[in-house]
Amino acid sequence: MGPTRIGIRHLRYTIAVADAGGFRAAADALNIAQPAVSKTVQDTETDLGFPIFLRSAGMFEITDAGRVFLDDARLTLAAFERTIRASRQNAIGARGHIIVGYSALASSSQISAGLDIFHKRHPGCQVEMHVMSTDTMMRNLKTGEIDIGFLLSHGSVHDLEVAQKPIWSTQIGVVVPRAIDTVSLDMLRDSAFVMGVRENWRSYRTLLDVAFSQAGLSPSIIDEAWDVQVIFQRVADGRGLTFYPISAADSLPAALKILPVPDWSPELTIAMAWSKVVDTKLLQAFRESFPT
Amino acid sequence: MGPTRIGIRHLRYTIAVADAGGFRAAADALNIAQPAVSKTVQDTETDLGFPIFLRSAGMFEITDAGRVFLDDARLTLAAFERTIRASRQNAIGARGHIIVGYSALASSSQISAGLDIFHKRHPGCQVEMHVMSTDTMMRNLKTGEIDIGFLLSHGSVHDLEVAQKPIWSTQIGVVVPRAIDTVSLDMLRDSAFVMGVRENWRSYRTLLDVAFSQAGLSPSIIDEAWDVQVIFQRVADGRGLTFYPISAADSLPAALKILPVPDWSPELTIAMAWSKVVDTKLLQAFRESFPT
DNA sequence: ATCGGGTGATCGCAGTTCGTTATCGGTCCA
DNA sequence: TGGACCGATAACGAACTGCGATCACCCGAT
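ok -> structure tokens follow
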């Protein structure tokens, strides 16, 4: 069995097919023509010696062997891209590179304090921060696309391959235009709300659903948005109010403030998450920079 | 900064240049012409945005940034090659793949017992075994080319990034043709010996040197060979005797036997070694299959 | 039954990449 | 001052990788 003619491109395309759930869809996602994808995946399968996808009649499937290969390939591709990216950002030779995902809900002074501690201990190390939803974070932790995640700790967010450690808890408050000085549970009943769409804010929305029903609330949601910036913009425009963890008050735009609601104080816990499968000394040091 | 045009080839060539200590030497090692190497490394440097090698006047050097990149690149390349290799060997979809390096001196029933335990616990996992010298093993552990090593534990074999755990100790004996029944310290003074070359058997030879001088021996070495098979062949041919750990008696060819030397019993310890930097659950499970 | 709309595979062709040989300019050492 | 070494460059052929056009197939809706 000679040396492989497989390259990074083969991994990338094959993964894209698996993710997109089809060759044509993968080609679209990759912005190339479909035959190129077909050809590359065929070459990969020939080289490996077994089919990765079953594409007879109707829907297509991933073989067992293919699934194993894809798991490895994802990790490899992530490692590769990180190698390039870390070096490009950092032509001066810093040691180490960590990619962190965090929920918009998790921005807070605790995070920057931990980053400060870590930077003092490892001055040369690059830390790359990316905002993403809790669900995306779990997926990316498993594929190695991110090393550490700060996410909303929630019963529905658990995975055997991912370890979690709670970092802090905070109360949820109401985000209102700066002019407003007080809120009450009764006010909330009559108010309109702007919220993140469930696709992107699943855990948070689920958590709020529970908190609402416990208080006997069923707030009317008049607007949903994908990004937190858009939500805040709508609130500033007077379209409605929204809920946000009080610990993230610093990241509010100047036109808004956050108020606790008397007699209603749902809690939210932010946890640090990391893969149990891939771990390094550097990541360990990073985690230890964040006290529980 | 657009998407990289760097591929696995770029990593491979760049690493080869660093390892070979020059472009021409790398080209030879890769079995391609030198300009191809020059071009590829240049492309890599352009893409990354900084020089990896300094090749002005006379000797060439690796830049600091280049060293960082190379460290990452080695790990990435190892991950890539493992992904391909593991899938190729195993078209039926076993889960997991471990690459083990072991010294020829370490072949013994302890190793196979541990492998048996591990295979029972992880039936689907491929374990790939490669013979290599202790020094090579240390290098390969750091680059991720092997996951676990069984090596000759020796004071000169230590590295901050590599953890070690002694697995067993054994006495060193003399390998002789099957016809011989007894040996003595005096016999050794007058005998000729066949040994492994120091390049490949550095730790073992160092250990023997000490044991010789303690017994007041200075055996005449009439022949040196690279591989243990060749050494044994020479012994079987009657060229001379050699020393070998008694625990590895099973791996002797039928024409030879191993005898302890009365009043001279140097010990040798085999340790399991692994990288502290890259670790996984599977490797942990593997290690735990080998009792101390 | 047959016609669109979907899948992925195949074919032939172009641009790019990759490797080759030949050659150049440089340093080092005899 | 040659000669042996190094790495960079140039020109060219082969291979790779992309493209559009097309094919064969399955499906569901006329």
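The mean pLDDT of chain A is 88.
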